[in-house]
Every structure is written in structure tokens, then in C-alpha cells.
Amino acid sequence: QVQLVESGGGLVQAGGSLRLSCAASGRTFSVYRMGWFRQAPGKEREFVSSISWSGGSTLYADSVKGRFTISKDNAKNTVYLQMNSLKPEDTAVYYCAGRPTTDSSYKHWGQGTQVTVSS
Fold this sequence. Notes:
Elements: E1 2-7, E2 10-13, E3 18-26, E4 31-39, E5 46-52, E6 58-60, E7 68-73, E8 78-83, E9 92-100, E10 108-109, E11 113-118
Parallel strand pairs: 2-11
Antiparallel strand pairs: 1-3, 3-8, 4-5, 4-9, 5-6, 7-8, 9-10, 9-11
């Protein structure tokens, strides 16, 4: 199993920044890709960004391109999401997820961390 623990959420004013962290432990050798997803109240969970386990490949949702940056510290098995120029519509619970090498979907999930952006 892979355990994921997020941290770094909070309340910030529009235009501000936050950095989310996701620490991975357990069978991390089985992880192919790490991702960040978010779910706002009354909405479905949506993809935000992802990075390969090696850190060489990144993807972003159009809504966050140019504002969010995903990165990975291989020594710490930790994935980061740097969020700049935050908007009220970024308010959501943010989840870290891991996709196994043997699967096409994300199977490992963290508990989530709340991000609230005030206008």
C-alpha cells in the first residue's frame, strides 16, 4: 500500500499564494505518477495537475496553467503544488493521489486539505 498525507492548505486572499505538500510512504516503488485533484462544494472532483514519479513529466488543467506549479522532491518522496495568483474559484478540498504502474487510474488517495480563497 501507499500512504499519502497532504498539508499546507488554509485561508488566503485572492491574489495570494499557498504551497501544498503531499508526503508519500509505503510501496512508493509501485507509483507511476502523482496527481493533485480538487473538489469544490456541490461540484465533481476535477484534475488539477500531475507529475511522473521521476519528476520529468508534468501536466496541468487549463484553469491553473501559468499559476500553479507541481514539483517533486525525490529524496523526500514528497510532491508539492505551488499555487500563485489564487482566485476565489480555486476554493476546494485538494487531494493528492497516486497512480500505480499497473493501473490506468489513480488508486491511492490522501485525506485532502482545504484551500479557501477569499475575495
